[in-house]
């Protein structure tokens, strides 16, 4: 590597990080610490709803057709506080809230309090005949007004995208050592009424263009409304496409080899939340493996996080900060000369700053999620990536003609599996 070039870049990096004079002391929690739920419980509940809506979208809920443009749900701390008040004292029923739809479950005489939020799994407790509460009008599924189906209709209503839940466990006076457990989830939408639209019939999203503007198609085949997520997804996949097609140059203006196997990154709202937790710590950590995380799908997954602390000299809002960080990480390819480039295809692990480029370019990374925290006129940008197993794989992608090693479909115009 050219020592003068490296010194120039490292000086710029030092100026960027040394300009930070103070950082907030933060112990991250999605909602206030005095809440009855832990972040692990919230993650479980979001997983329940993502899985339910994904299965519905794919036509795997008995009697109901596939869903087009079904939305994911985000956590809302205000709704959680309302839910906490609603289940305090473990009521066996709750009154309808005119301003918010809800899903409620009461489990009496349980011999142990809940260790997880399992009683809020809407699919586990859905009606035995799920289709009995709906009818189809053209390409729209509507609620038929049957009261016993209203909670389930609330849970799968596509336009309901914000959720807040709580549970309470109370000792049962009738049976020593037993508990009554109440759980509720509130949605930002009003209670669904007879004739209201639940979702549109069609195929679930595969790519971002299958969703509306400023939405991204997530790893659960659900549409997630976020301008930042859409920008992050687009930039990453365009850069990876350029690399796969042999259009990216190293320090010496020599092109990197084409990639025979390069995943199109799907957006993960779980990884976005993981990135946000990391960004909110403001601990100035370097880019590197994530050694602490809650992986909800596959314990063999491996996570990496790229990090950048961006001052207002480089960005004035979150979108500008995100764009600057992604381009900054990708520009680390300029540290790679011809001999270094050969090493990239035999090494398991790369040191910073080259690692920020190499991990963005890893062919077997298949999911991503980004977040930007803002404080005191600075931006902390984190993008998290997942590859399919924790076993190190030699090199950062397979060389060859684009799409040659894709096991399923491939976008040949982009070179992405």
From TrEMBL:
Family annotation (CDD domains): CAP_euk
Pfam families in the record: CAP (PF00188)
Superkingdom, taxonomy of origin: Eukaryota
Signal peptide: 1-22
Protein name: Venom allergen/ancylostoma secreted protein-like 6
SCP domain location: 226-392
Transmembrane annotation, as ranges: none
SUPFAM superfamilies given in the database record: PR-1-like (SSF55797)
Keywords: Signal
């Amino acid at each position: 590597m050219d020592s003068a070039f490296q010194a120039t870049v490292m000086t710029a990096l030092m100026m960027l990080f040394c300009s930070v004079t103070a950082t907030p002391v933060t112990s991250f929690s999605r909602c206030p610490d005095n809440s009855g739920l832990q972040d692990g419980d919230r993650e479980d509940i979001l997983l329940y709803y993502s899985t339910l809506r994904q299965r519905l979208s794919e036509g795997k809920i008995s009697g109901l057709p596939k869903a087009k443009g079904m939305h994911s749900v985000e956590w809302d701390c205000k709704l959680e506080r309302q839910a906490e008040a609603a289940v305090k004292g473990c009521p066996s029923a709750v009154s309808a809230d005119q301003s918010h739809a809800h899903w409620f479950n009461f489990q009496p005489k349980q011999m142990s309090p809940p260790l997880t939020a399992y009683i809020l799994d809407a699919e586990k407790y859905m009606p035995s005949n799920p289709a009995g509460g709906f009818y189809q009008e053209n390409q729209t599924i509507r609620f038929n007004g049957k009261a016993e189906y209203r909670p389930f209709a609330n849970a799968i209503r596509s336009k309901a995208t914000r959720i807040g839940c709580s549970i309470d466990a109370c000792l049962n006076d009738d049976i020593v050592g037993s508990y009554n457990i109440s759980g509720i989830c509130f949605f930002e939408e009003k209670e669904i009424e007879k004739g209201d639209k639940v979702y549109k019939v069609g195929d679930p999203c595969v790519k971002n263009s299958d969703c509306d503007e400023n939405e991204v198609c997530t790893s659960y085949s659900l549409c997630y409304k976020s301008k930042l997520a859409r920008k992050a997804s687009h930039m990453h996949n365009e850069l990876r496409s350029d690399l796969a097609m042999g259009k990216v140059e190293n320090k010496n203006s020599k092109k990197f080899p084409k990639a025979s196997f390069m995943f199109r990154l799907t957006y993960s709202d779980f990884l976005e939340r993981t990135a946000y937790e990391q960004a909110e710590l403001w601990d100035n950590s370097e880019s590197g493996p994530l050694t602490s995380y809650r992986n909800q799908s596959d314990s063999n997954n491996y996570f990496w996080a790229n990090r950048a602390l961006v001052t207002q000299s480089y960005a004035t809002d979150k979108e500008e900060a995100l764009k600057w960080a992604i381009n900054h990480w990708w520009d680390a390819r300029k540290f790679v000369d011809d001999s270094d480039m050969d090493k990239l295809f035999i090494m398991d692990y790369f040191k910073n700053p080259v690692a920020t480029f190499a991990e963005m370019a890893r062919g077997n990374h298949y999911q991503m999620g980004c977040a930007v925290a803002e404080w005191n006129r600075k931006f902390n940008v984190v993008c998290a990536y997942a590859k399919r197993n924790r076993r190190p794989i030699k090199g950062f992608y397979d060389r060859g003609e684009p799409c040659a090693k894709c096991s399923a479909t491939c976008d040949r115009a982009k070179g992405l599996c």
